[in-house]
């Protein structure tokens, strides 16, 4: 034992965590690669970081805000922890207008990453969770931290006491609920990160029924709803009965380019009750007033401006820009005979390299093309053999990345063991 | 659809805070159907009341409804009122403008915070204290940091708090599962050590009588008492922590209000780097209560019992449970720490100090026993033999001034009222006038006035 230690025992939950959180690890690899190849132009199709400017419409709105914060009449201190009333109403009207979500059910936050952990604080260590496999890693990692899980099992690459619901081509990327054990909580992301798959109305109806039957709650992540093309549900509340079983989380990050500005929201319907009848919304309100002091008032003002007609119009064209990126990448990869899933209703492509180890594919592509992707196993054991490729980026970079990938795969088709011979795309 | 109000509708003169209606209503609801089988988190069930400050706001709204033509003055929640200096908002505006351009756009930042800002924080506040920029974690404020630190610590640790104390340390501890149940008779949560701080011990705990805990929350200058710990006292605290192998979570959010050369950071005490985490905030310092910016310092030398660096785990928490403070707020923070920014901030702080001076003089001249108010923006006023919610209610009803009842800060706060110096000068003067009026006409009748006129 090193001298100078305190007698404070390390939190056993932190000890259970297997690795670093996924995305800082990707960043670390990126930095390492740049150091090794300082003259190379690295292209990131990795972390889903937005690159296009926020709407110009926000300019004159925000200029006013900053000015008023410097005036006696306009200065504002603490806001409501739950969020500005006008913004909450705008969120309810814009995204849920026809779904009767009330503004008191909207909790504005500094983004989904924080909300997920605040929801875990709410739930406590005594609940069981189910996640899709593969899944956005924050649901699992936050669950480990709060103490809901057992140890990581090296052989299966799973945390004990968590139900992993496989989502893959074998089941059209929707879990077989008839084989899924009951848990208190089900995390469900649609459009999905990382697979890009969006659940249909029928499938979400099954999910809601499953939750109702089991008395479970769904935590529905709709952060990528703006990318849906085919009329699939954008909110869980499009499904009847969802108000009694589902919390919905969402974000301005991918929607409005607010990845650095930090703004999101959580919906907790009034009807959502614990087993003893106590409204979950009351406890979340307690969490939000105790563990948080509200999203930045300037981020909230920006959010409100985004939801004006002009703001929404500008946002729509940025989203179309990313959609076009993704289309370019999809066409490239499909033309190379790769098996590509997702990429239609989401900004992510989920590429299958049968028989591969995803970190190996990641490393090979990084070394040979200087492109950062995300290895699928970072999203759970169901992600092994896959790579997540992101359509967020500058158009030039997409075009250049396509060129490099074309070059790489064409010269290596005979030698590259991970290419599947089929050219199915989803 | 059932619409439920879980707050009591007692009159504003009720002497106890509204309680969340529990059991009987629960069983009514069960019959309605539509409950999930999700069991309510037992830790949330332990929480006695609403968090303190939303309860104060609720009383404020209730009062305004009852007296719509009255001008309510808040000396309650420590909410800043003075505009943010133009230099700072202008930088934030420029940064936000740049976000709408191709060259200036920025997406995700480092979860730990912008490197330049972290260096500026280390240099400005800890320049001579060897705090390194990698030890600085920028956040959206101390309220969030306290809960993230609790996520870090987990449910298996024991805590000690000052009594009275800023309530978030206790409430976050209940939520994460470190405490037992609330004990109605003592008004304390079981398994928490409460360290009395009052006039009997110059507002510094008697550490010789304090049992060991893993963690000690310590706020100086103190919210709510306004007391600042001396170098000698903090040295005792650090030695106490070292001896016990405990860690101190030192809240220095009000350091900018110190007048008398008392320590502004725990790291002024030798040995503190091996026992202390420090949290602080731009809220009271720069008027960023709405903008949201703060920081936590975790020294490299701070180790768990197994030698693992605490900073590594906090980094893991911050990258998993958080995605960084708003980049615009961070740009504002950097502007605050420029020479011009610091100068302008200094004059806003002096403005609040003058407010507090006015209130102190008023209350002292009325023969009230006033503590604090010298090195902090809060006055801690003693009404011997009183119930603090009663004094709160009486003052609110008769003078339309909001304060904060001391028992909201723990059992050691009963008999006290916290009065805040944050506000507009006019309001301070008007509040003084009303208080003078109120206490002068009631001196013979108001049972809570002490006859001594000690001020600390």
UniProtKB/TrEMBL annotation, chain A:
SUPFAM superfamilies: PLP-dependent transferases
Cofactor(s) listed in the protein's UniProt record: pyridoxal 5'-phosphate
Residue ranges annotated for the Aminotransferase class I/classII large domain, each copy included: 42-391
Alphabetically ordered keywords of this record: Aminotransferase, Pyridoxal phosphate, Transferase
Name used for this protein in its record: Aminotransferase class I/classII large domain-containing protein
Organism: Brassica napus (Rape)
Classification of source organism: Eukaryota, Viridiplantae, Streptophyta, Embryophyta, Tracheophyta
From TrEMBL, chain B:
Matches recorded under InterPro entries: Aminotransferase_I/II_large, DapL/ALD1, PyrdxlP-dep_Trfase, PyrdxlP-dep_Trfase_major, PyrdxlP-dep_Trfase_small
GO biological process, one term: systemic acquired resistance, salicylic acid mediated signaling pathway
Essential cofactor(s): pyridoxal 5'-phosphate
Aminotransferase class I/classII large domain mapped to chain residues: 72-421
Keywords: Aminotransferase, Pyridoxal phosphate, Transferase
Entry superkingdom: Eukaryota
Cross-referenced SUPFAM superfamilies: PLP-dependent transferases
Molecular-function GO term, any one: transaminase activity
One Pfam family from the record: Aminotran_1_2
Family per similarity comment: Belongs to the class-I pyridoxal-phosphate-dependent aminotransferase family. LL-diaminopimelate aminotransferase subfamily.
The protein's name: Aminotransferase class I/classII large domain-containing protein
């Amino acid at each position: 034992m090193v001298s100078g230690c305190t007698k404070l025992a390390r939190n056993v939950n932190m000890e259970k965590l297997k690795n670093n959180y996924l995305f800082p690890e990707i960043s670390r690899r990126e930095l390492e690669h740049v150091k090794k190849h300082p003259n190379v132009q690295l292209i990131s199709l990795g972390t889903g970081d937005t690159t296009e400017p926020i709407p110009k419409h926000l300019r004159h709105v925000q200029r006013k805000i900053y000015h008023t914060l410097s005036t006696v009449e306009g200065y504002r201190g603490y806001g409501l922890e739950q969020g500005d009333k006008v913004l909450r109403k705008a969120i309810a009207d814009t995204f849920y207008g026809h779904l009767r979500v009330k503004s008191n059910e909207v909790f504005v936050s500094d983004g989904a990453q924080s909300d997920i952990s605040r929801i875990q604080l709410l739930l406590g260590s005594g609940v069981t969770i189910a996640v899709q496999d593969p899944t956005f890693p924050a649901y699992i990692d936050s669950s480990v931290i709060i103490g809901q899980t057992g140890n990581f099992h090296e052989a299966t690459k799973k945390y004990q006491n968590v139900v992993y619901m496989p989502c893959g081509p074998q089941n059209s990327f929707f879990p077989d609920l008839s084989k899924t054990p009951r848990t208190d909580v089900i995390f469900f992301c649609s459009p999905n990160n990382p697979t890009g798959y969006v659940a249909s109305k029928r499938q979400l109806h099954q999910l809601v029924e499953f939750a109702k039957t089991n008395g479970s709650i769904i935590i529905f992540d709709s952060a990528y709803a703006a990318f849906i093309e085919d009329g699939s549900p954008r909110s869980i509340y499009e499904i009847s009965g969802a108000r009694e079983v589902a919390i919905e989380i969402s974000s301005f990050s991918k929607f409005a380019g607010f990845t650095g500005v930090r703004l999101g929201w959580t919906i907790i319907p009034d009807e959502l009750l614990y087993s003893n009848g106590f409204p979950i919304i009351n406890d979340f309100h307690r969490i939000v007033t105790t563990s948080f002091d509200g999203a930045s008032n300037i981020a909230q003002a920006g959010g409100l401006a985004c939801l004006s007609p002009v703001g929404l119009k500008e946002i729509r064209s940025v989203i179309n820009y990313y959609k076009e990126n993704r289309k370019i990448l999809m066409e490239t990869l499909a033309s190379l005979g790769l098996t590509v899933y997702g990429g239609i209703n989401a900004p992510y492509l989920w590429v299958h390299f049968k028989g591969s180890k995803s970190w190996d594919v990641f490393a090979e592509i990084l070394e040979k093309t200087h492109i950062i992707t995300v290895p699928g196993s970072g999203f759970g054991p169901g992600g092994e053999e896959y790579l997540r490729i992101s359509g967020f980026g500058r158009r030039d970079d997409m075009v250049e990345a396509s060129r490099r990938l074309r070059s790489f795969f064409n010269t290596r088709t005979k030698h590259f063991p991970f290419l599947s011979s089929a050219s199915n795309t989803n």
